[in-house]
Write a structure and sequence with these properties.
There is one protein chain. With about 240 residues, this protein is an alpha/beta fold. It has two domains: about 160 residues, Rossmann fold, CATH 3.40.50; about 70 residues. The chain is about 40% helix and about 25% strand. The strands form two sheets. It has a six-stranded mixed beta sheet with strand order 6-7-8-3-9-10, with helices on both faces. A four-stranded antiparallel beta sheet has the order 2-1-4-5, with helices on one face. Helix 4 packs across helix 5. The chain is globular, with a radius of gyration of 18 Å. The N and C termini lie far apart (about 35 Å).
């Protein structure tokens, strides 16, 4: 399989606090990769490094073979790399549909006249079409999560990074969102998904990676990774 994203010994520190310790990781085109780890493991920082919100101190990041290590975040988005945020950040005074138009226009440099139909299709796919004219600030948590994903999809990503998109939802809401994520992946978009709700993650991903204190400690088939003594020790807090 073709490698879409690759990190080679990526490192980031804030003073003496190292939040990414020489992380090397590859994501194949079409893959769904899950990332887990305790709070403070460096998962969200890893997304910030990949998207360009934070600059790496050392190492190399490539997208489809091109070095993007020093590329600005906006150019990475245009190149097909986009993310959602753990805490939804809608444009609260714009409608749901306008939220997508802004993302498409500025995230991929498209003209509004060329994207209206595509944005409507994304709203339908993410279960928001009936709420297209509601203000972003009026949505429930589930619909804000859906809007986070829909706005990211409006940028036409090849690689979509999801940051704890299931967090805070009820079991029923989580199941609905998992089905939406599955559909997004089936459409051909490569996924990297950080999540604490592991059963939701395992319903979608084909490979799992584990971070702890900024260090990649395990990766592989999801069930085998979860059965690892080291991984179980991290989550249970005592040797297994």
């Amino acid at each position: 399989m073709t490698t879409l994203l690759a990190l080679d010994r990526v490192r980031k520190a804030y003073g003496s606090l190292v939040v990414a310790q020489d992380v090397s990781l590859a994501v194949a085109e079409g893959e769904a990769l899950g990332i887990i780890g305790p709070n403070g493991a460096g998962k969200t920082t890893l997304f910030a490094l990949i998207t360009g919100a934070v600059a790496a101190d050392a190492g190399r990041i490539t997208l489809d073979g091109a070095d993007i290590t020093r590329m600005p975040a906006q150019r990475r988005c245009v190149a097909g790399l986009c993310r959602s945020h753990q805490v939804p950040q809608p444009f609260e005074k714009l409608t749901v549909f306008e939220n997508l138009l802004v993302a498409a226009c500025f995230g991929r440099g498209a003209r509004e006249a060329d994207i209206r139909e595509g944005c409507a299709e994304i709203l339908e796919r993410t279960g928001l079409l009936g709420k297209a004219n509601r203000l972003g600030g009026s949505l429930t948590l589930l619909d804000r999560k859906r809007l986070e994903m829909a706005r990211a999809l409006a940028t036409a990503p090849r690689l979509l990074l999801l940051d704890e998109i299931a967090g805070g939802l009820t079991e029923g809401e989580c199941a609905e969102l998992v089905e939406t994520v599955r559909a997004v992946h089936r459409s051909g978009i490569t996924l990297v998904w950080i999540e604490h709700i592991v059963h939701a993650l395992l319903a979608v991903v084909g490979r799992l990676a584990v971070l702890n204190f900024g260090r990649l400690i395990a990766e592989g088939e999801p069930r085998a990774v979860m059965d690892s003594a080291e991984v179980r020790d991290i989550y249970l807090g005592s040797p297994v």
